[in-house]
Visual arrestin
Amino acid sequence: MVTKKAKVFKKTSPNGKLTTYLGKRDYYDHKSWQDHIDGVCFVDPDYIKNRKVFGLIVVAFRYGREDMDVMGVSFRKDFAVKQMQIYPPLEENKHPLTKLQVKLLNKLGEDAIPFHFDLPTNTPDTVCIQPSEYDGGSPCGVDYQITTYVGQNMDDKIHKRNSVSLSIRKLSYFEHTDEPQPREEITKEFKFTSGAMKLECTLDKARYYSGETMNISICVDNPTSKKAKRIKIQVLQLADICLYETLTYKSIVTELETEEGFPIESNTTGFCQVYKLRPFLDMAKRRAGLALDGRVKYEDTMLAATTELSGNVQKENLGVVISYKVRVKMTLGFGSGDMVLEVPFKLSPARLKGNLIKPEAKEGDEDDKEEYDIVMEEFKRIAIKGFENEISGGLTSAGI
């Protein structure tokens, strides 16, 4: 019999009367199916008395600091709100228990109550826009929060002392499929010389995992009397804020400038070179305007994934739309200007481990033979050394 260690995250209310347990802090949209949010609440029956326990999940986009919320105007839009009664449990809220929930209920006793949320559909991924050193308060972006609280009615005011709030992440994870290699080319003609210089850029794939090395193929044909002096390649991230105004943050994720193989002299054809770049957060950690899937101080934070629109979802309902492209700039001789082209590509979260099948499909399979040893851990993310006290600020901007 196989024994596995199952990590469970927990958080307790300030008065110690309510504790919430979750098996994960990150939940994924797999396009054809989505992760469920399954957890357990442990309540003190003597404290609850004739009151109830409710659950609330909120998806919100904040585009201004909290101290700017004046005269009843809030710089925040809620995309989706789901509420349900957890205790006493209602028949319509019952859902088949996961193996981890069963293990928790056996461990915690009769005062533990399971709960189940479906991950909201047609809502944006978690995104955090890096603030500049002059900004304060919470960063702009999309966040997801689960709250369990005690009250007489579902609409009662939530008090901090007897509630538990947990920030989770919703991410999109699509398995890579065969897609055409992205390719772009441009030509440039010059006065007083025949022919046209051609610059071509081809990527080895249309989609990359975060941190994966990109192979960027550059080909140049120069049948003219001009020459090319150097080349600069940048991986750019574009974050379109499309809720309240048209605003785009452009950030350099990584770049390379070289004269290797240059200059490309006149009447030269067939120049071809492959350059390697790696779009990775460590290359641009402190750049203001960079879109991430969490706070920069946490060690599991990565670059925000490409936003993939599906169905009839309007951009305004996504808050932040993320895209990526490779920008190639080839500098020519004196008085000849530059040649610039851009090639779009998609960036996904880091490759997930394990068997990615629907939770329902796991019931009754070989996994039933596995035993779980529960390992409890506080519901907080580990900060990078040197970033523990950094909330926002201290960042530098990078122009294009």
